[in-house]
Write a structure and sequence with these properties.
It is a single chain. The strands form three sheets. Strands 3-2-1-4-5-6 form a six-stranded parallel sheet, with helices on both faces. Strands 7-9 form a two-stranded parallel sheet. Strands 8-10 form a two-stranded antiparallel ribbon. It is of the alpha/beta class and 217 residues long. Helix 1 (11-22) links the parallel strand 1 (2-6) and strand 2 (26-31). The protein has helices at residues 11-22, 39-42, 57-64, 86-101, 123-135, 137-153, 191-204; strands at residues 2-6, 26-31, 47-51, 69-72, 105-110, 158-163, 166-168, 176-178, 188-190, 213-215. It starts with a strand and ends with a strand. The radius of gyration is 16 Å and the shape is globular.
Length: 217
């Protein structure tokens, strides 16, 4: 499958590329700074690189040419994330462009800041969300807005938002998928696990139009 990966130059995006290549997909990278890609990925013959900003519709449309799915590791960069929910606005545009081009599948990164009716109370996750909403308010608002965009504008697209807890760089790829406070999930996940879950979900389609919470078991 030919897949477009957004947020590809970050730590989670790199793992997403590696897992996608391991599954024999052809990767299209759309990035503002593609020079940040590790050499082993930038020089891989199955990685096609497009440089551009999310606000550049022409460049984004060129990157979407011929792809069957979009995988995204886009997320706020930290407590100094800009106001105005730019990523949510980008997803709104991306959803429309997908519909116009008949691209059905989108799997993207989220966090528990996006609530789901299936969630139950978890002290650790509640503390995490409160901390983010207090000390990284624009990042919190961004994820909430992304969730709202999917709910209100996602008709016609088979989207999944994989909500993650605290991410680590360990090599473990085991993932438990469920909802907050369900007794199966925990407060940590590896970036490799995130990449593995997304690539598996691309094949299995178990969580279409849902907000699964994924973590280490």
């Amino acid at each position: 499958m030919r897949v477009l990966i957004l947020g590809a130059t970050g730590a989670s995006g790199i793992k997403l590329i590696e897992e996608s290549l391991a599954a024999s997909h052809t990767i299209v990278v759309f990035a503002r700074s593609p020079q940040k890609l590790p050499e082993h990925l930038a020089n891989n013959p199955n990685v096609i690189i497009h440089k551009g900003e999310l606000t550049d519709e022409v460049a984004l449309a060129n990157a979407m040419e011929g792809v069957q799915a979009i995988l995204s590791a886009l997320g706020p960069t930290g407590p100094f994330h800009p106001s105005g929910t730019p990523l949510a606005h980008a997803y709104s545009k991306i959803l429309q462009m997908m519909k116009d081009r008949g691209i059905r599948r989108l799997i993207a990164l989220g966090t528990p800041s996006i609530p789901d009716p299936e969630d139950k109370f978890s002290p650790s996750i509640y503390a995490m969300v409160i901390t983010v909403s207090t000390f990284a308010r624009t990042a919190y608002k961004e994820f909430v807005a992304i969730g709202n965009v999917m709910r209100t504008e996602g008709d016609g697209v088979d989207w999944t938002i994989a909500r993650v807890p605290i991410l680590t760089n360990a090599a473990e790829k085991k993932v438990a998928a469920g909802y907050v406070g369900d007794g199966k999930t925990s407060s940590y996940l590896t970036r490799a696990g995130f990449g593995a879950f997304v690539v598996e979900e691309l094949d299995r389609n178990d969580w279409v139009k849902k907000f699964p919470f994924i973590s280490l078991p």
